[in-house]
Amino acid sequence: MVLSGADKTNVKGLFSKIGGQAEDYGAETLERMFAAYPQTKTYFPHFDLGKGSAQVKGHGKKVAAALVEAANNIDDIAGALSKLSDLHAQKLRVDPVNFKLLGQCFLVVVASRNPSLLTPEVHASLDKFLCAVGTVLTAKYR
Amino acid sequence: MVHWSAEEKQLISSVWGKVNVEECGAEALARLLIVYPWTQRFFDNFGNLSSPTAIIGNPKVRAHGKKVLTSFGEAIKNLENLKATYSKLSELHCDKLHVDPENFRLLGDILIIVLAVHFGKDFTPACQAAWQKMVRVVAHALAHKYH
Prior knowledge:
The complex is a heterodimer.
Chain A: H1 5-18, H2 22-36, H3 54-72, H4 77-80, H5 82-92, H6 97-113, H7 120-138
Chain B: H1 6-17, H2 21-35, H3 52-57, H4 59-77, H5 82-85, H6 87-96, H7 102-119, H8 125-143
């Protein structure tokens, strides 16, 4: 799966419009993921996952920052996320299926906050981008 | 047997009550064909699917989308008995249509995004959770008679 020129334009455009709210998007993505897919909570036994949790907000900010970084370096996502990829392979070892679940929730956040931004074309590009990020983060697993 | 809490049933039916089945169905199917283009393999006789614009404007896509989402309505009326409700449809999708059940999961996820587009903040995390469960259970019921 390859990101076309149009995909890259769509993704960069979307993230530029989301701008400073990326942190909020990250936090809400996690909140939705924990609600819709309770098994994802198993990776956070050390977190308070209650509503408004500062830990979830903080972690959402990190997740969002990584997505922004990937979008800003969309021609070399593997390079941009190399250290994160190492971390996931060596330490976090989040099962690969979960990246799809996170991606679905991020799409829902974008859709619910910015319905007019998520045209079918942008939806397709963003879905591809999120898949690419997941692939990079699991690339060194074995 | 799947257990549905009163809250889940309420979240599902309150959203459903506001859904325009024709519009949402058309949009969900169109997005499926656009976001996951390999799903077009089932629709060779639908005519022009050559671009997102063509897909969105395609009357067969609209009609079929409406049909598919109308069927969801049946599921919502029969949440306690989905396997029986979808028994014949499951056989049809296996024996005649030869549809990989993975496609039901893809369509379910797309439907959730369409609902999020339409309902915005009202599509709360709790709402999404109930609907993700619903589409997962529908997909499972549709796959149940596969052999």
